[in-house]
Specification:
By secondary structure, the chain is of the alpha/beta class. It has five helices and six strands, in the order ααββαβααβββ.
C-alpha cells in the first residue's frame, strides 16, 4: 500500500510539471500558404543613396595677348613749289591787254584736276599772296568769298568747281574779273593753268600754264 501511494504521488507530480511546460511554450508561427497563380506582394527595396558629384572647375585661361598689328605706312605728303610756278604767271597776267587798273578781282580756289590728292588750300593761299599789293587789282577778301559761298550752300574751303559758278559769285560780290585756276595732269608733276575772265561777258582775256615742281 505504501508503494502504491508513492507511485501515484510521483505520477501526479510528473503530470503537473508537463502541464506547466506545455503552457509556457508558444505555438509556432503559422506558415503562409503560397497559392499558385497568385502574385505575392514584394516589399519595396530602399534606393541606394547617390552622392552628388562636384563638377570640376575648368582652368581659367590666362589673359589673351593681342599681337601688335604692324603700323600702316603713312601716306606720303607731297609738297610743291607753288610760288615758283605762280609768280611768273601772275607777272604776265598783270601785263595783259584789256585789263582796267583798279578793278575788283575774285580769286577762285585752285581746283584739283590731277589724278591724285594734293593740298589745294595751300596752292590757293600762295596765289593770293602772289597777288597781294599787285598795284592793279583790288582783291575780294577771303571773308567776302566765304560769305558768298555760304549763300550758295558751299563751305569756305570748297572750290566753285566751274567757270559759270565762279562768274556768278563774282557778280554777287561786285567783282569785274575772275581768276580761275586748276592743277591738272599727273600728281607727281602737275601743271598749273590760269584763266583771267571778264565777269560781264565771260570772255577769257588772258590764260597761262606752267609746270609745278615738287619740293
Amino acid at each position: 500500500m505504501n508503494n502504491f501511494s508513492r507511485y501515484a504521488l510521483v505520477t501526479a507530480f510528473a503530470l503537473f510539471l508537463s502541464g506547466c511546460i506545455s503552457r509556457t511554450e508558444q505555438p509556432p508561427a503559422p506558415v503562409e500558404e503560397v497559392k499558385p497563380g497568385v502574385e505575392q506582394p514584394v516589399e519595396p527595396t530602399q534606393p541606394v543613396p547617390t552622392v552628388p558629384t562636384v563638377p570640376s572647375v575648368p582652368e581659367q585661361p590666362g589673359p589673351i595677348e593681342h599681337q601688335e598689328q604692324p603700323a600702316q605706312p603713312t601716306p606720303r605728303e607731297r609738297h610743291y613749289d607753288w610760288n615758283g610756278a605762280m609768280q611768273p604767271m601772275v607777272g604776265k597776267m598783270l601785263q595783259a591787254q584789256g585789263v582796267t587798273a583798279g578793278s575788283v578781282l575774285l580769286v577762285d580756289s585752285v581746283n584739283n584736276r590731277t589724278n591724285g590728292s594734293l593740298n589745294a588750300g595751300e596752292a590757293t593761299e600762295t596765289l593770293r599772296n602772289a597777288l597781294a599789293n599787285n598795284g592793279k587789282f583790288t582783291l575780294v577778301s577771303a571773308q567776302q568769298l566765304a560769305v558768298a559761298k555760304q549763300q550758295l550752300g558751299l563751305s569756305a574751303q570748297d572750290s566753285l568747281g566751274s567757270r559759270s559758278k565762279a562768274i556768278g559769285i563774282a557778280r554777287n560780290v561786285g567783282a569785274q574779273y575772275v581768276l580761275y585756276s586748276s592743277a591738272t595732269g599727273n600728281i607727281n608733276s602737275p601743271a598749273l593753268q590760269m584763266q583771267l575772265m571778264l565777269v560781264q561777258t565771260g570772255e577769257i582775256i588772258w590764260s597761262g600754264k606752267g609746270a609745278v615742281q615738287q619740293q
